[in-house]
Structure formats: structure tokens, C-alpha cells
């Protein structure tokens, strides 16, 4: 995962190139998610956001999250109802998430062939895929070592 500063710079450039606004609230929400290292829930974001923006309310956070997801800057962890920064937002792609149940670390991987195969199979069945989330849960190398 790129450092937060690099990720924010990439996000700003990407938004500018697309002609969409990367507002201070959207920037702050992305920064908080990127700094978390794991999934961050919307209300945890709200708690952190209100320290700098006292007027922030749940719709503020959810609108920012919707924007960040739409721009490919954040992924939703469906199983946890949490959010994680995209490791490479400049690339339109399928992705899979490795989620450690020990420490909560989330890592994004890219096996495009799996995403492509699933989409092709769905299409042959007459199904149009709108969103695809693949989550693999287990233990990261660090947690495996710690558990001996």
C-alpha cells in the first residue's frame, strides 16, 4: 500500500483528470481510511472526523464514502461493513481482499483472471455483474508466527 501522502496525491490527480471535486472532507476521509491499515467503519470515521469538523454527521461520511468508492479510491469490506483504501486507485480492476482475523490487517491483491472468469460465467448465464467482492479471511504471516 502506498504511503498516505502518495495515495492522497494520486487521488487528487485522478479526481482532477476526471473533472470531479476532491473536497477537504473527501480527502480527510480517505486519509483516515489509509492510515488505519485495516478496515474502518463509517461511525469510527465519523468519530475521528468530528475532532476536526464538529459539524460532520453520518450523511457527510456516507456521501464521502460513496464518492470514494465510485472513484475507485476505497473498497467496501462487505463482511465487516468497513472500508479500506485501494492499493492502486489509478488502475480499473477486479480485486480480492485478504483479511486477517487476528490483527485486522487488510491487503488487496489482483487476480484479474478470476474476476474475468466470474464475469464471463455470469454473462453466459444472462447475469450482468454490477459489483464483485471477493474476501479471503484467515491469518497473516505475522499472526501465524505469533500463534506458533
From TrEMBL:
<dbReference type="GO" id="GO:0000976">
    <property type="term" value="F:transcription cis-regulatory region binding"/>
</dbReference>
<keyword id="KW-0238">DNA-binding</keyword>
<feature type="binding site">
    <location>
        <position position="103"/>
    </location>
    <ligand>
        <name>Zn(2+)</name>
    </ligand>
</feature>
<dbReference type="GO" id="GO:0045892">
    <property type="term" value="P:negative regulation of DNA-templated transcription"/>
</dbReference>
<dbReference type="GO" id="GO:0005829">
    <property type="term" value="C:cytosol"/>
</dbReference>
<dbReference type="InterPro" id="IPR043135">
    <property type="entry name" value="Fur_C"/>
</dbReference>
<keyword id="KW-0804">Transcription</keyword>
<dbReference type="InterPro" id="IPR036390">
    <property type="entry name" value="WH_DNA-bd_sf"/>
</dbReference>
<keyword id="KW-0678">Repressor</keyword>
<dbReference type="GO" id="GO:0008270">
    <property type="term" value="F:zinc ion binding"/>
</dbReference>
<dbReference type="InterPro" id="IPR002481">
    <property type="entry name" value="FUR"/>
</dbReference>
<protein>
    <recommendedName>
        <fullName>Ferric uptake regulation protein</fullName>
    </recommendedName>
</protein>
<keyword id="KW-0479">Metal-binding</keyword>
<dbReference type="InterPro" id="IPR036388">
    <property type="entry name" value="WH-like_DNA-bd_sf"/>
</dbReference>
<feature type="binding site">
    <location>
        <position position="143"/>
    </location>
    <ligand>
        <name>Zn(2+)</name>
    </ligand>
</feature>
<comment type="subunit">
    <text>Homodimer.</text>
</comment>
<feature type="binding site">
    <location>
        <position position="140"/>
    </location>
    <ligand>
        <name>Zn(2+)</name>
    </ligand>
</feature>
<keyword id="KW-0862">Zinc</keyword>
<keyword id="KW-0805">Transcription regulation</keyword>
<keyword id="KW-0408">Iron</keyword>
<dbReference type="GO" id="GO:1900376">
    <property type="term" value="P:regulation of secondary metabolite biosynthetic process"/>
</dbReference>
<dbReference type="GO" id="GO:0003700">
    <property type="term" value="F:DNA-binding transcription factor activity"/>
</dbReference>
<dbReference type="Pfam" id="PF01475">
    <property type="entry name" value="FUR"/>
</dbReference>
<comment type="similarity">
    <text>Belongs to the Fur family.</text>
</comment>
<keyword id="KW-0963">Cytoplasm</keyword>
<feature type="binding site">
    <location>
        <position position="100"/>
    </location>
    <ligand>
        <name>Zn(2+)</name>
    </ligand>
</feature>
